Sequence to fold (258 residues):
Amino acid sequence: MLACVSTTLGGCFQRRADGTRGTDSDSVVATTATATAQHVDTVVRVDTFLVRDTLTALGDTIAAAGATAPATVSAPTAGVTVPTPGPVGAVNPPPVTPEAMAGLAARRISVPIAGISAAKLPDTFNESRGGGARKHEALDIMSPRNTPVHSVDDGSVIKLFTSKAGGLTVYAADPTGHFIYYYAHLDHYAPGLHEGQPLHRGDVIGYVGSTGDASPDAPHLHFAIALSNNVKEWWKGTAVDPTPVLQASAAAGTSVTR
Fold:
């Protein structure tokens, strides 16, 4: 069995169990296996809360994380342990605490489609998708194609992204930098919309459509909220059910987008 002994420049050579130094080929094999294990861990542990329903394809997930998937994964050399794949979203997701929910409630977010009462919104958060493979973790608001979609809060646009499942999407951050608002299946963006653009509650950011994996016969807005540790990592976060948040905001005085 070989053990990796670190060198000053961050490399390593291999030392056998009997104390002798391994050959260069030993070092290459063990180093390659270690790198493979690290790469596998990076790919399978990319936290993709928002991607579970909208970036479901692995290629989209990896593109969002800026990684490149290997064509094949080699079997590890003896003595090298490949990490057990964890569930999607397993990398330190921020907990949804009462304090976090109080912070979100204080935002008084508004319904993203004008004229729709929060009291009439369906709660589709716990519905299954992908043949029961995952939870929806979002709110679907059925509306005619090209209905304006409004920003639910002040904040800024952090990412404009097109994915296989979500289609044309917008990721926006609230002013506190703790929450990400996600709008998917858009037909098109509002003219001039760009990343970094400041947003005010009620601003039109796009229009209802059926891009991505939405049925062409059922245009709707897919709206999600994520609690985030870092909004610059827009693909990460912990899902929060939007419907009760919107209904609580309505009860507190914010019922319909202007």
